[in-house]
Design brief:
By secondary structure, this protein is α+β, with helices and mostly antiparallel strands. The protein contains 12 helices and 14 strands. The strands form 3 sheets. Strands 1-6-7-5-8-9 form a 6-stranded mixed sheet, sandwiched between helices. α1 packs antiparallel against α3, α4 crosses α5 and α4 crosses α6. The radius of gyration is 26 Å and the shape is elongated.
């Protein structure tokens, strides 16, 4: 049995680009001048004087900032503070600079920022090819999902477990690419996704330490303890994807100025660097996690959505949509003739079934082995109707009747 790619969640997770048209300037009365100043500094704006203790004059990064400046009050102690804030926010909104857009995002939704950099050859005028930029986005998406999975459980290999709630944690994440295609920033809302950013920072530091330990001693046991920090097969695969084909890569987590440093977070948040020389260790660690993760005893309740057997009698394969008992959406299992018949009858009358067995890590925790104790679960009429309607709305119902009645 082969392992599916770890960067394919059960529900597509597509980072949403930051659209400057939709980012309205916030109400000046709700903006903390200190937070605005911290965001300007973070995104490359430079302070070039101003009245000490009253306001600072800020210019954007790069040659495009010539002739453009913002007057930002240092506090609200002066009567014109709100007017200056309003003018600065309007100027940011009208600016076409990515640095202005990123500041507005940080003000609109207090967010921790995760940044990725890849040292790759560039094309004309410092741009990167479409393939290079797509590789960066794909690796960043894998890393965010790995961190989200680690907020659900500590495991060396997650497989299909926890994918849906982990993917849901990414729904509010915004992603903006810097010019040139060599870097990327994810804006992770403090509410509810700050645990993702904290876990990712801890996992990156733990990975770096484990890699250094292996390269110094030849031993892999540091990766065992790193699991508790959030390191997993999924994270090492994301790092391999990030570093492969580059001269090096970095990842940094920066905390939202409005929310401060979280418990467990490190400041100042130094970027964590990885090089092509780390790839053999990362690949070995990922394979080790894959081999070591044990099967899990479970007792599942689920709805039969597919059945198949090669003859009119004997054992057959059943697919369940899991309702309770495990953090996976579907499992497959092989049942003997009697259990197979019970599962078929339960499906035909609209009842879920209960079954126990071991959820195997092979295949990504999608298969139940040693399945037994199959029995229908009684539900009320309203729930039965809902389950039947749900099944009829899926394309699998046609295949079910073809295979259950006709065999293959």
């Amino acid at each position: 049995m082969t392992h599916g790619p770890i960067d394919q969640p059960l529900r597509p997770v597509r980072p949403r680009p930051v659209d400057p048209v939709r980012i309205q300037p916030p109400d000046p009365a709700r903006v903390d001048p200190a937070v605005l100043g911290a965001l300007l500094l973070r995104h490359g704006w430079q302070r070039r004087g101003g009245a000490a203790g009253r306001y600072g004059r800020w210019t954007p990064p790069g040659p495009g900032g010539r002739g453009t400046s913002l007057l930002v009050p240092e506090n609200r102690a002066f009567p014109d503070s709100d007017d200056l804030l309003g003018e600065a926010l309007t100027a940011l909104y009208r600016s076409g600079s990515p640095a202005a857009r990123d500041v507005l995002v940080g003000l609109a939704v207090p967010s921790d920022e995760i940044r990725w950099w890849r040292d790759v050859p560039t094309g004309p005028v410092g741009t990167a090819s479409w393939v290079v930029e797509d590789q960066l986005r794909s690796a960043a998406r894998q890393m965010l999902l790995a961190a989200a999975l680690a907020t659900r459980a500590r495991a060396g290999y997650h497989g299909a477990r926890h994918r849906l709630p982990a993917a849901a944690l990414l729904d509010g994440v915004l992603v903006g690419a810097a010019p040139g295609g060599r870097s990327l920033t994810a804006f992770v809302p403090v509410t509810p996704a700050r645990p993702l950013a904290v876990r990712l920072q801890q996992a990156l530091y733990a990975t770096r330490e484990a890699v250094d330990y292996q390269r110094a001693t030849g031993r892999m046991d540091a990766f065992d303890g790193a699991v508790q920090a959030g390191v997993s097969h999924e994270l090492t695969e994301a790092l391999v994807a990030l570093v492969r084909g580059t001269e090096g890569a970095r990842v940094a987590v920066e905390w939202a100025p409005a929310a401060g440093v979280p418990e467990g977070g490190t400041t100042p948040p130094e970027p964590v660097e990885f090089s092509p020389g780390d790839l053999p260790v990362l690949r070995e660690a990922g394979a080790r996690y894959l081999r070591a993760e044990p099967s899990v005893p479970v007792r599942l309740t689920g709805v039969v959505v597919r059945m198949r057997r090669s003859a009119a009698r004997g054992e057959g394969t059943v697919r369940l949509r899991v309702l309770a008992g495990a953090e996976v959406p579907h499992v497959r299992m092989t049942l003997g003739e009697d259990a197979y018949r019970i599962a078929g009858h339960a499906h035909l009358v609209g009842l879920p079934v209960r079954v126990h067995g071991r959820l195997e890590s092979r295949g990504g925790f999608r298969r139940l082995t040693d399945a037994g104790g199959v029995a229908p679960v009684q539900v009320d009429e309203a729930e039965r109707d809902r389950l039947m309607k749900s099944l009829q709305e899926t394309a699998e119902i046609t295949a079910f009747f073809e295979e259950a009645c006709g065999g293959e």
